[in-house]
Amino acid sequence: MSNLSPFLQPTAVTRPDALAILHLKRDLLTPTVLRTHDDEQLGYAEGKVTTTRYGNYPHSTLIRQPWGSQIKASLVDTGTRGRVGLHAANGKKRKRDDFSRSRQEASPAVQDIEPITHHSKLPDVPNTKPAVPAPTGFCHILPPTPETWTASLPHRTQVVYTPDYSYILQRLRVAPGTRLVEAGAGSGSFTHAAARAVFDGESQDSTIISTHTSSEELPTASTRVGKVWSFEFHEQRARKLDAEIQQHGLQSIVTVTHRDVYEDGFTLDNPSSANPCINASAVFLDLPAPWMALPHLTRRPSSPLNPSVSVHLCTFSPCIEQVQRTVSALRSLGWLEIEMVELSAHRIEARRDRVGLQEEGLPGVNASPANVEEAIGRLREVEGRDRSYHHGKTSQPPVEDPADETAGEYVSKQQRLQNIREAQMDRKLYKEGRLTHRSEPELKTHTSYLVFAILPRAWTDEDE
Fold first, then answer.
1. Which of the residue ranges 75-89, 189-203, 233-247, 415-429 would you say has the lowest mean pLDDT?
2. Per-residue pLDDT tens over the stretch 433-453
3. Are 417 and 360 in contact (CB under 8 A)?
4. Are 46 and 129 in contact (CB under 8 A)?
């Protein structure tokens, strides 16, 4: 069996030539392909470096790390003078090309690295300048999943986010072994999620299922293989998505086709292949005019739908006028149980609010008096500091108030903050404060209407 995609079964540690996600903060993730050499020829002395506004990360510090590890940023000279050859080339393309060839000739071992397999030994990272940890900055290195890829992918079109596609896959009853048709692939967010959902854990050999001429010959639950057929009208987007699918190791599950489904339907490019029949039981249409593609989704002999089961369909439309035309077309074509759903996902943040003067100087807290006693104590402290300051200009000692319990215990603000930081080490902050929750002010999603429908299985007089 060939190596599985990291989206389906990641390894225990990061490996060269594999996709990784750098988690910089909750809503900022950066994808990168880990390299043992500077494949972009940027001239960094540390080799391949991913630069972010939260620090620079040489790939020598990212490879062979357990997934989820916290990686400290490194000190990298990102200026022209710190990048070997670029300053000497003075920005001339011909000189940079000459420098790149000289580096390749000087380091032949870099070019001879064999592709990584699950049982092969990891190659040694070529000799580069050791990475020096920076005083600040860190990230977490995460394995690629449909969720992290959706949050970090390059946007070519409007993206179907995680709250949307998780609900869509559930309503379409997508399970391991399901055969799904997608039209309007765009940036590939839904494509990656669907590929994981239909993956059945078995060999994804496309020759298992052959041409089916009758419902009795359709794949059973024990032999079916999950598959996603993705159709995209824009040729350049289709090529980029197909390249990403190949790079992510999902080519045995996902088939990307450049096709205008309005005119040409959902047929495959190569009808003489070993698997020309789609026989889909789930359909997702992310199209401007989904009603124009619905006539190709019927119970005709050339239909891509599975005739032996009911087919579940979902359309993704941003305008209510599109929904109205889609529903009218569905009713005229015999689709049943038509329903429209609007999703509005809110992320709820739970935290503990800590209030009090004992929180002064600590991050993420409200360092104001929690009660009257703390406020009075702070006022007495300020008044006592003033008395000490003014009496210090004279030879007479300050007059202390017998009722003031804090007299003679005044400390500087720097010392007070230091005492608070030291006391924090022995406190269990996760148990302190009042537990509160609030929804995020901005939603990372978009207005959309989901239309669901079911097409009953074909029913003949013989079945009756």
1. 75-89
2. 778 888 876 666 666 899 999
3. yes
4. yes
CA distance 379 to 375: 6
Sign of CA dihedral 269, 199, 330, 305: positive
Give the whole-angstrom CA distance, residue 145 versus residue 341.
26
**End-to-end distance of the chain based on CA atoms, in angstroms?**
44
Q: What is the DSSP letter of 121?
A: P
CB under 8 Å to 119, separation ≥6 — which residues? none
Residue type, 273: S
What is the rounded CA–CA span in Å between residue 224 and residue 218? 9
**Which residue in this structure is represented by tokens 């609010």?**
353
pTM, whole model, 2 decimals? 0.71
Q: Which amino acid is at 300?
A: R
- DSSP annotation string for 366-425: B-S-SSHHHHHHHHHHHHHHHHHHHHTTSSSPPPPPTT-TTTT----HHHHHHHHHHHHT
- SS3 at position 46: coil
Handedness of CA 444, 448, 449, 450 (dihedral sign): negative
Ordered alpha helix ranges (H), 40-117: 86-89, 93-106, 108-111
Q: At what angle do helices 162-171 and 189-198 cross, to 10 degrees?
A: 40
Residue listed under structure tokens 């040409």: 264
Alpha-carbon distance 394 to 386, whole Å? 13
Can you read off the two tokens belonging to residue 138? 């860190």
Q: Which residue has the tokens 């990891």?
A: 122
Q: What are the backbone dihedrals phi and psi of residue 254, each rounded to the nearest 5 degrees, phi first?
A: -110, 130
Closest residue by Cα to residue 282 from 161, 192, 160, 175:
175
* pLDDT number for residue 112: 39
Contact of 90 with 37, CB cutoff 8 Å: no
Q: Is 159 helix (H, G, I), strand (E, B) or coil?
A: coil
Locate 344 and state its tokens: 């509005």
Q: Token pair 């030994």 is at which residue?
A: 121
State how far the Cα of 354 lies from the Cα of 7, in Å rounded to an integer. 40
CB 31 within 8 A of CB 20: yes
Closest by Cα among 301, 319, 5, 304 to 149 = 5
Can you tell me the distance from the alpha carbon of 400 to that of 54, in angstroms, rounded to the nearest whole number? 52
For residue 199, the model assigns a pLDDT of: 92
- 419 vs 256: CA distance, rounded Å: 62
**Distances from the Cα of 420 to the Cαs of 22, 355, 366, in angstroms?**
34, 14, 14
pLDDT tens figures, 41-51: 777 777 888 88
